[in-house]
Specification:
about 350 residues; Rossmann fold; 2 domains; 12 helices
Length: about 350
């Protein structure tokens, strides 16, 4: 059994990891850490775990000492020192935060107002999007778990960019996320009266996931890619749906697009390319590790419209983190992740 610890276990991503790992047949949850609730049982914070997991929230050092793999569900700026402690103790480190996602220290400084520490660890870190970087993830000890928006967008655009079917110029991405994406902490944005019966964009063309999105898309296309990315807040708990607009190159047919998507994902357990006439819907991936993709062509404007739907807490965070763990420990990639989506 793999001993797994969670730092930041009482946040939304952390408690989702608890839910997944407690049902994983090859994992024992060895420790949960929480600064806010240290010394309390996690079941006191989340009564749904009463009698299922009554572990007491520990310090980060205690979690690391008792684990073979540590998942960090903490805000940016906090993971780098945790990664160093894990590296010194031979512990696999999977970061659900942003500290290791960007290759450029300048980009990290610009978008997160923080600096790279432990440069050797940044060089060893692997971007953990399994469908694209599976071979790099194998054997790695430091994983940068992708952001939720970037996951939906990279999976949506990969087949088209990788096959050269669309222009890298003028890509527009319109994404919507459930309120859980804002985290468990109280904020005016996520306050019930503000988000219920409301719908609006936020951080227009200024969201911190922008450089991560552009970095991944540039690697896929082997060209510098700049996108217009606008996120919106949906008055729902879970889910991300990204509608992506890209201009088709000359003489690209609908069958070319369909073939590229089906070939790219025919062996992928968690990516479902929908048949023509269907539209990806966040309802159909809720509480699952699936990414549903539907493809549409506007012949009038020669535009490919891609709709990509994920559960932001699972494929967009904790489920993908477990998927990465499975790869590293040479387990079946879908182990512990075969959740059937809820339908309402």
């Amino acid at each position: 059994m793999i001993k797994a610890g969670i730092i930041g276990a009482t946040g939304y991503a952390g408690i989702e990891l608890c839910r997944i790992l407690l049902n994983h047949p090859k994992v024992v949850l060895s420790g949960v850490g929480s600064v806010s609730f240290e010394g309390k049982k996690i079941s006191e914070v989340y009564p749904a775990l009463n009698g299922i997991c009554d572990l007491v929230c520990q310090s980060t050092d205690e979690v690391i000492e008792n684990s073979e793999v540590v998942f960090a569900c903490v805000m940016h700026g906090l993971s780098q020192d945790l990664a160093k402690k894990c590296a010194d103790n031979g512990v696999v480190f999977i970061d659900l935060g942003a500290d290791f996602r960007l290759d450029s220290a300048n980009d990290y400084k610009e978008w997160y107002d923080s600096d790279f520490k432990h440069l050797d660890l940044h060089k060893r870190a692997v971007y953990g999007l399994p469908e694209l970087y599976r071979n790099d993830i194998k054997g790695s000890k430091i994983i940068a778990n992708p952001g939720c928006y970037p996951t939906s967008i990279a999976l949506g655009l990969f087949p088209a960019l990788n096959s050269g079917l669309v222009s890298t110029n003028g890509i527009v991405i319109d994404s919507k996320s459930g309120v859980s994406g804002a985290g468990r902490g109280l904020s005016q944005t996520a306050h019930y009266p503000n988000c219920n019966e409301a719908f609006a964009p936020y951080k227009i063309a200024a969201h911190r996931h922008t450089p991560e999105i552009e970095q991944t898309l540039s690697k896929i296309s082997k060209k510098d890619v700049t996108v217009l990315f606008v996120p919106h807040l949906l008055p729902v708990n879970r889910g991300i749906i990204s509608t992506i607009y890209a201009k088709l190159e000359e003489n690209v047919s609908k069958s070319d697009v369909r073939k590229a998507f089906e070939n790219s994902y025919k062996n992928e357990k968690f990516v479902r390319v929908l048949d023509d006439g269907n539209v990806a819907n966040l309802r159909d991936v809720k509480c699952s590790n699936f990414c549903d993709i539907s493809i549409h062509i506007d012949d009038r404007t020669n535009t490919l419209v891609i709709v990509s739907a994920i559960d932001n807490m699972v494929k967009g965070a904790s489920g993908q983190a477990v998927q990465n763990m499975n790869i590293i420990f040479d387990l079946p990639e879908d182990m512990g992740l075969c959740f059937i989506p809820t339908t309402f």
